[in-house]
Amino acid sequence: MKKKTIAIIVVCVACILLAIPVGYKILIRGSIQVESKTDYTADEIVYFLQKDPQWGNDNLGGSSYTMASSGCLTTCIAVELQMQDIAVPDIQKTTNSDNEKTITPGILNGYFSEQAVYDAEGNIQWDALEQALDIEVVRRQASELDSDELDALLSEGIYPIVLVRLNGWGHFHFVLITGSRDGEFLCMDPLNAKQDEVTLSRYGNRIYALRHLSE
Fold it and tell me: Which of 6, 70, 24 has the alpha carbon at shortest distance from 167?
C-alpha cells in the first residue's frame, strides 16, 4: 500500500474518532442524566402497547401517522390516567360506554381525534388536551428539573412521562416512569412487547423533557 494511501486512511480514521464524541454531545444536548436515591414500587403497573392490533392502525387525528408508529405519548397518557386513578367522564359519554372503566390507548386516541387534540402532523397540542381532559398538564424541559424531582413525584403517587432516545442515541420516544430500584428508575415502555418494566438505563439514563397530569 502506498504511503499516500496510508496517510489518507489515518487522517480519515482520526476524523471519525474525533467526530464521535462531538456527535454524541450534539445528540444529548438539552438532556440530563438522572438516578434514583430511593426505591419506589407501584401497587399495580398498567401495560399498554402502542402497536396493539386493537388500535395500532388507528390514525392520530387527521394525520397520516398511526398509533403503532407514533402513539407512544398517547399510550403513556392512557397508562398514567389509569395508574393515578383519574376519571374522564366525557370520554364515556363520547364512546357511549357507561360501563367502560378502562381508558385504553385506542379509546383515548379516538377521543383526542374528535376533540382536535392533535395537529396536522399528529402532535399533541397541550392546551387542547387540558381542555379535553379538564386537567392540568405539568410540562418541564430537562434543564428545569432538579435531581430529586422524579423521586418526589413517585413518592406522591405521580407517574411522570419522560422523553428519551431509543438506546440512548436513537429516535425520540416517550416512556412512563413507574418506580425505582437500586438507584435506577423503572419504566413502562409502549414498545416493549414483553410488557414488563425496563430500566431507564436502556435509554442512557437520560431524559429530555417531562410531562405529568395533575388533578
Answer: 24
**CA triplet 201, 32, 67: central angle to 5 degrees?**
65
Strands 161-165 and 172-181, by their bridges, are antiparallel
91 — pLDDT class (breaks 50, 70, 90): confident
Let me know: does 34 contact 180? Beta carbons within 8 Å. Answer: no
CA separation for the pair 75, 139 (Å, rounded): 17
Number of H helices, E strands in the chain: 7, 8
Q: Which residue in 130, 116, 85 sits closest to 103, CA to CA?
A: 85
Q: What is the pLDDT of residue 6?
A: 54
Rounded to two decimals, what is the model's pTM?
Answer: 0.85
Name residues whose C-beta falls within 8 Å of residue 56's C-beta, 6 or more positions apart in sequence: 49, 50, 66, 67, 68, 71
Question: How large is the greatest C-alpha to C-alpha distance in the chain, in angstroms?
Answer: 79
Instruction: Return d(Cα 97, Cα 127) in angstroms, integer.
Output: 26
* Burial of residue 16 (number of CB atoms within 10 Å: 0-12, 13-18, 19+): exposed
